[in-house]
Design a protein that fits this description.
The chain is of the alpha+beta class. It contains two helices and five strands, in the order H-E-E-E-H-E-E.
Length: 105
């Protein structure tokens, strides 16, 4: 698709691509915010969850910032998932927009 489109466009394309390969995909997965063992009246929302194990957080921005990395790390911790990818589609080569995160490392 190339850079310059809205995040929602890339999300729809990514979902279609994964499903066409028979990969289980969930979208807009809600994770409750738990603080000191209490469930608070606030939820996180994961863009895409693959095979109930891998979180994809999609962006279409000029550049990734530390706050975007912190967002994905929080999602990994709150959901108790091990692996996540932060993907920025607004780059000339898509491979330059990938960042991999492993919970606990």
């Amino acid at each position: 698709m190339g850079p310059g489109l809205l995040e929602s466009v890339y999300q729809h394309c990514m979902i279609d691509e994964l499903q066409s390969r028979s990969i289980q995909v969930e979208t807009s997965v809600v994770i409750p915010l738990i603080y000191k063992g209490n469930v608070l009246n606030k939820d996180y929302e994961i863009d895409i969850l693959i095979e109930r194990e891998i979180i994809l957080e999609l962006k279409s921005i000029e550049s990734l910032l530390p706050v975007h990395q912190a967002q994905l790390i929080s999602y990994l911790q709150q959901s108790n998932k091990k692996l996540g990818f932060l993907i920025n589609f607004n780059v000339p080569l898509l491979k330059h927009g990938f960042k991999r995160f492993v919970n606990g490392f």
